[in-house]
Amino acid sequence: MAMAVILLIVTGGALGWLASILFRVDDTHGITANIIVGVTGAVVSGLVICPMIGGSNVLAGQYGPFALVVSVLGSAGLLALFQVARNTAIR
Hints:
mainly alpha, elongated
């Protein structure tokens, strides 16, 4: 179980970092915020959403490719929403 949660955190952090490159965020707060949002999206979708849609339960020690895909999609979706909200607030 602990290894699966660590994998979710690493996956979310990597996606947050990649999002900061994709969205061309240069300031330190933007990169840090993207990493935090990426980790949050991956953990929430991997622990909550995946079992709700019939995937493996990470808390029970089961982790499969479907859970990883759901985590990646959840992290990317939350990052996209965060970027839209940030761009709206700046304007």
